Amino acid sequence: MKQFQGRVVTPGEVTAEAVVTKEGFNTLASFQMALQFGDKEVKCGDQSNQELYGKPLIGKALCLPQTIGSTTGGLVLYCACAMEKNPACMLFANHIDSLAAAGAVLADVWVDGVTMPVVDGLGDEFLSYVRDGMTITVKENGVVEVV
Q: Which residues, in sequence order, are CB contacts of 26 under 8 Å at separation 6+?
């Protein structure tokens, strides 16, 4: 097991299976099929992200450097949480961007019964270490354990 310390953006504790990308995560492209057309497995629809394309995102520990793309990114994250089609948590190697932070914070405040812990600033070593299928545990204080 290896531990990483990050900054808590939205609080919570969760244990989930990792899905990892070292590329930027386009929130709109990734969630569009699930939100518009009812994909129950919430498979990543971003064809430009070959590391995640076609992989289920719902209930997973989404490990990424940062989000990219449309200014709708925050709203898409909020909607994914409101529709209970969100990752279990989002773990950023870099600092979170304002759009993703807004979506995560709005979902944390406005969506009852859905928790999606978000931690940023985990560093390049985090993304170098974590692999798909590893077990991730997020602690309330921003500690992320990877097994």
A: 46, 48, 49, 67, 68, 69, 70, 73
- Beta-strand ranges (E) seen in the chain are 2-5, 7-10, 14-20, 25-26, 61-64, 67-68, 89-92, 118-120, 135-138, 143-146
Q: What is the per-residue pLDDT for 42?
A: 94
Position with higher pLDDT, 61 vs 40: 61
Encode pLDDT of 64-75 as tens digits: 999 998 889 999
Contact 137, 144 (CB under 8 A): yes
- Cβ atoms of 138 and 117 within 8 Å: the answer is yes
pLDDT tens track for 106-117: 999 999 998 999
Q: Are 103 and 78 in contact (CB under 8 A)?
A: yes
CA separation for the pair 81, 78 (Å, rounded) = 5
Number of H helices, E strands in the chain: 4, 10
